Predict the structure.
Amino acid sequence: MMKHLKGLDTLRALAATIVVIDHVEIIKKDNGIHNFIDNPTLIYPDGHLSVILFFVISGFLITYLLLMEQEKSGGINLKNFYMRRILRIWPLYYLILFLSYIIFNPDYSLIRILLPLFIFPNVAYALQETWDISPQIWSIGVEEQFYIVWPLLFIFISRKKKALNYIIALIAFFTLLPFGLKFINQIFFKSEEIYSLISRFFYGTKFNCLGIGTLIGFLFFRNKEYINRILVKYNFLTLIFTLLPFILWFFKFKTEHLNDELYAVLFAFSIYNIVQHPKINIDSAITRFLGKISYGIYLYHWIFVILFVKYIPKIDNSFLYNTVLYFMILSTTIFISWLSFVTYEKFFLNLKKKYEIVNK
């Protein structure tokens, strides 16, 4: 059994919490309620970048586990890999689709229903057929599509002497792809509709950010000792760069182009340092707990945000209203996520152990 990678649960807890806060404010704004978004004096992080952080963590962890499996068993069992992903992701994903549909009873077109059912919610978003009763599921589609393709590429790439060059080339390809498609559209079609479709698809379908995670997975596994000597030698600079993306994120620093990719690189550096540096420890009992149920927090919260924003009476006292609203949303989401984890999800996680070669 491999050692537990410190810090990842805390980072997941942070990302999930920020997603909840961001979505509360979006729903408040949509309902004409005083919100943080319309108040320039209030500063809070962008929820979209939480998903980028999730992507980098996923790319890193999956790659590291694949490398561990390859070292331990001499190869990759694709059937076991896909079964592990299915048993971890599908049960809660499909439960959320079912619950949100039953609770809100939307009048959806067939395509709007079928795309999420076949794990293409990100494509539904691009086609403006979003599952808007739980729209955050788009990122699950991106991760699932990545999980289908990455182990196949990994088998080819991992045994190459210049594996990192292949990964960098893939990252560059998916980074440049939307620009290339927009350029082709501008030359041949000049279609605003096609341009918007490309923009919506690549707004969330960030295979390059997942790829940045795979890159640090390789570095962490294969170049750990060399990089560690550098990190320890330059402790102060290491600490600054570990904190940098979170400081920029909190103050909503944003570039006009490649903002997600910039943050993915910075998050990757932070993740590596947090996991590996002997003097950096961000874990606590609370954050480890929240990190373990962060998948549930991410998927369940939208339902409770909609319900509580709708049914909690609006009052003039903004502080009191927000205190009650956030307490109800966070406490209910955390409780249901925990309950789901120890009952419903745990059943499938126990089944998943049958297909594990390396334990996280």
User: Anything to note?
Assistant: Residues 8-355 form one domain. Residues 295 and 324 are 24 Å apart (CA to CA). The chain has one domain: 8-355.
